[in-house]
Design a protein that fits this description.
Elements lengths: L2 H12 L16 H16 L3 E4 L5 E5 L5 E7 L12 H13 L8 E7 L12 H6 L18 H8 L16 E9 L4 H5 L3 E7 L1 E10 L3 E2 L11 H17 L5 E3 L3 E4 L5 E2 L2 E10 L2 H21 L3 E10 L2 E2 L2 H13 L6 E4 L5 H4 L5 E6 L15 H18 L1
Parallel strand pairs: 3-4, 3-5, 5-16, 6-15
Antiparallel strand pairs: 1-2, 2-4, 6-14, 6-16, 7-12, 7-13, 8-11, 9-12, 10-12
């Protein structure tokens, strides 16, 4: 069996570790995550790594060495009804590459991190694992509750972590050589360009908000159309403006991913509609400009329909450029494998956003079939994974 085939087989095995029997769900600090950490930790030990977990639940395999530490890895949690490769591929690939250095000395230490939470599915936060490593974990998050009313602190204790010691997970820039993550592209660009891998230039910035249109509930049969204050109609008009505002700015994407309607009955005019908003662009200025336009549009639509509108910011992450030096080293490694260098931004968020707080970062994308991600249909080719492994090996060798 080739190394790439072994990586895919391990991803398949890990893909069977789930909270639910019929679909892949692996949320933060759950028994399924405990099983995943045990499985991947075993692979790390087989590769000669010293394995531990930090206080927030990140799985860490270390190969000791002189000087600073190169960090590799990705996340082991998943979305609901996930595919096998988003996150785990980066961890499993890093283990496979370090096995190639079994009898080769390196002038630095290497750690592979399986971050405990990147997706933010169980609690209304994301990047919990890398936030702790970057020293950006907010203690108030520990009081957040999941859908079953379990606080993050209680879940972490049950998992075996230590809510009171999360600060100990933080790393300093002085001790880190850099961070490199292999990840499926989650988009169709590499497939369209006919390239097995790509070098990431920037991780796109994001703005998240919850927008509420508030009108007046009424009887669906007795209130004339010209007398209605229909919150859902206002929300629907605004949703179309989200699409048009994004299309007017090259590279902008904006999404209304969820909507709630109250009271939500067939024969009642909606009195309130709540929506999530997600705006992304590689330019922080363009993203903020688009968001400001969308907020103005919400106010205009509400005024025209005699509605109220409430805008609640739910967080923002700035666009993060990758390290020019590390990106060039990845590009050199791609060329050395005989493939053209494709450079592209990442439209998705990654743990690298937080790791950039404490280290220079690099990302290598692997082509995925039709760009499908966050979906059981995620697929990567063995040949493309083989290229990624060779590139990562050359990258580490070049750093050495």
């Amino acid at each position: 069996m080739t190394t790439a085939a072994s990586v895919l087989e391990r991803c398949a095995r890990l893909g069977q570790v789930s909270e639910e029997p019929e679909r892949l769900v692996r949320r933060y600090a759950t028994p399924a995550m405990r099983e995943a950490n045990e499985l991947v930790g075993g692979w790390m030990r087989d590769a000669g790594l010293e394995v531990r977990e930090d206080a927030v639940g990140n799985l860490i395999g270390r190969r000791d060495g002189p000087g600073r530490t190169l960090v590799l890895g990705s996340h082991l949690d998943t979305v609901i009804d996930a595919g096998r490769y988003d996150g785990p591929l980066g961890v499993v690939a890093a283990i496979a590459v370090l096995e190639r250095f079994w009898d080769r000395a390196l002038p630095f230490a290497v750690e592979i991190v399986g971050f405990a939470d990147e997706e933010g599915v169980r609690y209304p936060t994301s990047f919990l694992g890398s936030s702790a490593v970057a020293g950006r974990f907010a203690p108030a998050w520990l009081e957040l509750q999941d859908a079953d009313g379990v606080t993050m602190a209680d879940a972490l204790r049950a998992f075996g972590g230590d809510p009171g010691a999360i600060g100990s997970a933080a790393r300093s820039p002085e001790e880190l050589l850099g961070y490199c993550e292999v990840h499926i592209e989650q988009g169709p660009v590499l497939e369209r360009r006919g390239a097995p891998v790509g070098v990431v230039t920037t991780i796109t910035g994001q703005t998240h908000a919850e927008v509420r249109f508030i009108g007046e509930a009424g009887h669906a049969g007795t209130v004339p159309m010209n007398a209605r204050r229909d919150a859902l109609a206002g929300a629907a008009e605004w949703m179309l403006s989200v699409e048009s505002v994004a299309r007017r700015r090259q590279g902008t994407v904006a999404t209304v991913g969820r909507i709630w309607v109250d009271p939500g009955a067939r024969n009642v005019i909606p009195g309130e509609a709540r929506m999530t908003l997600d705006v992304r662009h590689t330019s922080n200025a363009v993203r903020r400009e688009a968001t400001a336009d969308l907020r103005a549009e919400a106010q205009r639509i509400a005024a025209g329909r005699e509605l109220e509108v409430a805008w609640e910011a739910r967080g923002e992450t700035a666009a993060v450029p990758t390290s020019a030096d590390l990106a060039d080293r990845l590009a050199d490694a791609v060329m050395a494998t005989g493939h053209p260098v494709e450079r592209l931004p990442s439209g998705a968020g990654h743990d690298g956003v937080l790791m950039a707080e404490v280290a220079e970062i690099a990302m290598l994308f692997v082509r995925c079939e039709r760009g499908v991600s966050h979906n059981p249909a995620e697929a990567v080719a063995e040949a493309d994974v083989a290229v990624a492994l060779d590139v990562l090996e050359r990258f580490i060798g070049d750093l050495a």
